[in-house]
Amino acid sequence: MDARTRTPRTLAIALALSAALAVAIFFRAYQIDRVPPPSLQVDEAFYGVDAIHVMQGQRAIFFEANYGREPLFIYLAAGWMSLFGISPATFRLLSGAIGTLTVLAMFWLGREVFWNDQGPANGVGLAAAAFSAFLFVNVSYGRSAQRIITFPLFVALVMAALARCLRTRQTRDAALAGVLLGTSLYTYSAIRVLPIAVALAFAMWWAWERDARFLVNGIVVAGVALIVFAPLGFYFVTNPESFFFRAADTMATGRLDVNLMRTLRLFVLRGDKDMAINLPKRPLLDSVQAAFGLIGLAIGWIRRPRRAWTLTLLVFAVMLIPPVISAGPAFGRTWGSVPPLLLVLGVGLATPLEWAWRIASANGLLRRLAAAGLTLAAAIAMIGSMWITFRDYFLVYGRLGELPLVFQENFTAMGNLIRSLPADERILLSPFQEMPATLTFALHGDDPRITLYDGRACVLLPDTRAHNVSYLVILEDHNTLPALLRYAPNGRAMNTQHFMLYQVPSGTFLQPTPQHPVRARWAEPIELLGYDTGPLTHDVLPMTLYWRAVGQIAEPYTVFVHLAPVDQSQAQPLAQHDEPPCGASYATQNWQVGDIVEEHVALQLPTDLLAGDYALRIGLYHSYLNTRLAVTLADQPHQDDMLLAGTVHSDGAK
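The structure corresponding to this sequence follows.
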């Protein structure tokens, strides 16, 4: 090819690749502030919170929350949000940028794998890049801020570098493949099977050609990859449970052949049902893409180079190992097989066009018109496939009524409101056992003003003499708002779509009046103000205990309530309740001085309980050491480690 021919062809390739990149950017950036909803689902939020912690100076080689995650994406996210700000849209644009880079990687991959005597396979590379730009699963993950977005990128990069090394047999290309392979192990756990494909490829090429350079280059790839992987590898050696935990948690328990069939069905019949990333059960390929795949397989069977197809199918098969051995085949674990799959689609699109134009160039106008017609038909098919992706993602998936719940819009709305509250205001959230990652991301990190408790098990009444207090209550908590209306009727309520805000002004005296007031204090600065008892119904004695923190409490304690015969104070209890306060949502070591905890207890009674009077015994013991806390002051009868609080009457179990 002379310079006059090369320049127009190079320009045409550049224009075609630019068009593919433009399509990729459109599908990953269009309405990014609306679809998915402008809030993070739980997996995205964990990555975002870890990235914020990195921005705040915390460092890790492996992030252990949420079953453990490799670090590359998290550090990229920290740098990205440092530049562009913290929000769901900007966070997701990082995935869009990585997904767009994957389009370039697919172009390189197609060129290298199907390189022949005429040079690089630009047509296959361009076609594979084009499919990568708008494949539904690529678009969906390209708009979701998760580390899995790096998975197909590095499969494509490693596979391309491997193909280049096998072709050139150069040590420098082996070193490049080793760097990429080692780096890939910092991306996503399912990529750990990729070294198997690399090792098998070098072994097969050596068996075919008996060229020692394949063995040498294989050793170079392995050595360089191990050097790059060494920091994370050392962590896994010293913490082996972190390496195996996620895999063990998702390991299949059924037949692998059944899992294989389920995995293959994901491609064309029945896709992932996870609404966070897919239109439920939509297959990975649409009908147009599946047709190009079948054409590609047929061409590969007939005409394409054996070794190119060997490498393509080898990587495809190895990357199916994670979904096949997992308990539930899903798009995420299957996504590593998509780069070689896109090569098949690329062959199905590019090769017939190349053949048609090669024939047309030597046989006159009629065949040129036929080639032009085939090209037009292929273009229409590609546009139709793009439309299918656009329709399914933006017009169907984006309008699903369940998405606000899946993407936890309530927590993002709550976080946005909390950030607008005064810096000295105490904020109580209910009902929560632990801080949702989506809420932490919306707050741009941990907020020391916030206290969590489960209002289904207790009501928290803080000291409001110096500061305002804001309660943010989700609808599942039916106790907090009635209590606030009793104790702080001067508060201000605001109902939102997702939660209730109730603001108690400073100076309000939140003081309950128990039915049975007592004054008892334990060795730690914990005080019992009294208790209520409700009517016995359905073999349950409902009680409310009123605790107060009169100082800083150092340890976690569990509350026990015993029902015993009146005249046998040392007897084994006939019924008992043992649980940390507030259903274990607000541990005693987290209580702030002045907090009153109105704890709701349901004491389960035995079915054979006789009618009569029974003694209530109340106390505390260390949650881990099981040592009881001594009663130090009480206006009621007490033993060393429990308060004899009073008696209750039972008419006998119903």
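The chain has a mean pLDDT of 91.
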